[in-house]
Amino acid sequence: MRSTPSTRRLRRDASARGAHFSRVLGYLRRMSYAALQAHYRTLFQLRHAEAMLGWDEATMMPAGAGPARAEALATLRGLIHERATAPELEDLFAAAEAEGGLDPWQAANLREMKRAWLRETSIPRDLVEAASRAESQSEQAWRVLRSANDWRSFRPLLETVVSLKRETAQALSARLGLSPYDALLDGYEPGARRAAIAPLFEELRAALPPLIERILEKQSRETVLVPPGPFPVERQRWLGAELMSRVGFDWTRGRLDVSHHPFCGGVPTDVRITTRYDEEDFQTALMGVMHETGHAKYEQNLPAAFLEQPVGSARGMSVHESQSLLQEMQICRSREFIELLAPLLEQAFPRAVAREPRAFTPDNLYRLATRVKKDFIRVDADEATYPCHVLLRFEVEEALIDGKLRVADIPDVWDEKMQELLGLSTRGNDRDGCMQDVHWAAGLFGYFPTYTLGALTAAQLFQALTQALPGARDDIRRGEFGGINGWLREHVWSLGSLLETPELVRRATGKDLGTEAFLTHLERRYLE
Known about the structure:
By secondary structure, this protein is mainly α. It has two domains: 17-188, no CATH class; 194-527, Orthogonal Bundle (Neurolysin, domain 3), CATH 1.10.1370.30. It has 21 helices and three strands. The chain has helices at residues 5-59, 66-84, 88-98, 104-120, 125-145, 151-176, 180-188, 194-219, 233-247, 282-300, 316-332, 335-348, 350-355, 362-369, 386-401, 410-422, 449-468, 472-478, 482-491, 501-509, 516-527; strands at residues 254-258, 264-267, 270-275. Helix 6 crosses helix 7. The longest helix is centred in the N-terminal third of the chain and has 55 residues, at 5-59. The radius of gyration is 26 Å and the shape is globular. The termini are far apart. Mean pLDDT is 93; it is low at 18-28.
């Protein structure tokens, strides 16, 4: 057919309309991503408020306010869930995913939004509110009942939490195509699966018991003097704050307080650290503060341009735990850090040092900081026995969520596994056994494995760091943390959730996560 002026004009008009439609479609797609950004910015602000209410509950709230606070948090979490599952999000995701012009950070942000949305839309609001209410009531009761060693009163509260958590896990499992326990684990460490964790934990289970025995045999021939107290709380706080400043904590965006269980909370622009003090032992609180400071430095150095977006958040709890354990175990229990610490102890506790100066020498303090002991309490455990505490909890909570273990049987199973792993019995001592942690009371099932995954990651990162910065250990001795913090900022902190965890570890260390660096670290520190 011959082309005529009118047909050519029609073709031009059609082409123009097509180009216009493409421009409109591209604009709408960009608007979809912008709308998602605005939506998740609001969610961030709501969660900011939730974090502050949670911090206040743990540190400042009077006991009589507990029931009202539980209702307030349940309502707020319900509102957050309602917004996180808004019906329009599905269409916005479809439109934004069809767009091809997102940069790597935007694409990763969209991935993390979608991940969070899939989890949120798996759980109905009434279940979210019921679980929140039960967890608040359980956690508040735990603070009293643990100290009273009252498992009988605590058990029905925990049974309610576990029942609701199983229901939550089933809902997530059906939506995500994961086993119920993997669905919970994925909430703390995206992409983590039991099938990948099990081989690492099996290696540790085989390697650690004989290694611990060798360390204990060697240390049995060493003399360690316990520094004499008392160590006034206000001086312990000064010491902790001084060291927080030296290692890089930003006091304009954070604070240090007291709680029943040490934690790091808040948001990157307002980080809240807590600890607990014992006037007869400065080391527990100090190392607890240093541990939480590792968490805090990570939060304070997340990518500033994306702080209100999912991609700007920390990359899962195993990476988060790696930062606290790298700070506490790799750095603060090193001989170099102890040499930095010794003169500060003399400033903090001059009377104690004058009473027994030999206890405060760097050599004695290092032996004290690296003492290995089979003990009941996870948070006080040394780095060699700590994974045993995690293995126990991992196995118990797996069985609970899988329905293979009743809450009523936890004390007996706990005692059996404690004897198996560390040769200790907790029969009749639930306070130092299955009631010692707040995690299950607060519904945090799936969290415990990240502690040991974090220890493995910390050792592997520090090994890579010291290879890249040969003078890092001397910097620690001098109290100069700019180089170390700079390396961590480049390879971990500033990346937020841009990369999946395995890729982040590979890029930073040159290899997949394994047990070699951790076991090598233990051999060198404790046996060489």
